[in-house]
Amino acid sequence: MNYNTVGTEGQQDFTFWSTDFMESNSSTVVVTGFGPFRQYLVNSSWEAVKELSKRGLGNNIDLCIMQLPVAYQKAKEQVFKIWTTLQPLLTVHVGLASAAKGLIILEQCGKNKGYQEMDACGFLPEGACCMLDGPEKIESTINMKTLWKSISVEGIGIIFSRDAGRYICDYTYYASLYYGNGRAAFIHVPPLSPSVTADFLGKALQSIILEMLKQCGEETE
């Protein structure tokens, strides 16, 4: 198992700590989480992704993790660099759903329009949309409903969704689906709590993403 950390806390530059992925992009999986968000100074999505990095995704997968800012344009720019620089097999974005108490949500698609809420920088995207020339929505190549029916994680419920919320999560997901030709996925996780720890969520992410990779036809060890 190999993993790299890209864009850690306090570091907004997109910097890779290894060049291995440039030579083996067909086995690269990028997993992102988000930085601080409103009252959530510790974002469960990033904490879960860091725990996932300790577990890995098998010996055949190069796992690269990255923290995205809760800002429309900056997140979009970094997603673009993921796809143009790494060209991964799959990019999985993980976000915090503050209302999802005790639930993990598998998001099927990203929406292009309807972004009316300002980001952490006080910015709204032009035209309240992600891509001015983009389609209304883009579906992931991962069949989330099939995944939802086949996966279970002890201690937490998993649900299927077609609405990622029209905020940074949805915006980032749409951008990644657009740049990656659908080879992206989005998972919403709940806030951290005594019963939902970062380690617990990291283990859950590992199980879910390994199931996603089966749909990609990637064998892991």
Features:
221 residues; alpha/beta; seven-stranded mixed sheet; two-stranded antiparallel sheet; 6 helices; 9 strands; 31% helix; 22% strand
Helices and strands, with pairings:
Blueprint: E1 2-6, H1 20-23, E2 28-34, H2 44-55, E3 62-68, H3 72-86, E4 90-96, E5 103-107, E6 109-111, E7 137-139, H4 144-150, E8 157-161, H5 168-179, E9 184-189, H6 198-216
Parallel strand pairs: 1-3, 2-3, 2-4, 4-9, 5-8
Antiparallel strand pairs: 5-9, 6-7
Q: What's the total helix number?
A: 6
Helix content: 25-40%
Distance between the termini: 9 Å
Model regions low in confidence, pLDDT < 50 over at least 5 residues? 6-24
Structural class: alpha/beta
Shape annotation: globular
Main sheet properties: 7 strands, mixed
Order of helices and strands: EHEHEHEEEEHEHEH
- Tell me the strand percentage band: 15-25%
Strand arrangement, major sheet: 1-3-2-4-9-5-8
What Rg do the Cα atoms give? 16 Å
Q: Count the beta strands.
A: 9
Q: What integer is the average pLDDT?
A: 88
What does this structure look like?
By secondary structure, this protein is α/β, with parallel strands linked by helices. The chain contains six helices and nine strands, in the order E-H-E-H-E-H-E-E-E-E-H-E-H-E-H. It has helices at 20-23, 44-55, 72-86, 144-150, 168-179, 198-216; strands at 2-6, 28-34, 62-68, 90-96, 103-107, 109-111, 137-139, 157-161, 184-189. Helix 2 (44-55) links the parallel strand 2 and strand 3 (62-68). It is globular, with a radius of gyration of 16 Å. The protein starts with a strand and ends in a 5-residue tail after the last helix.
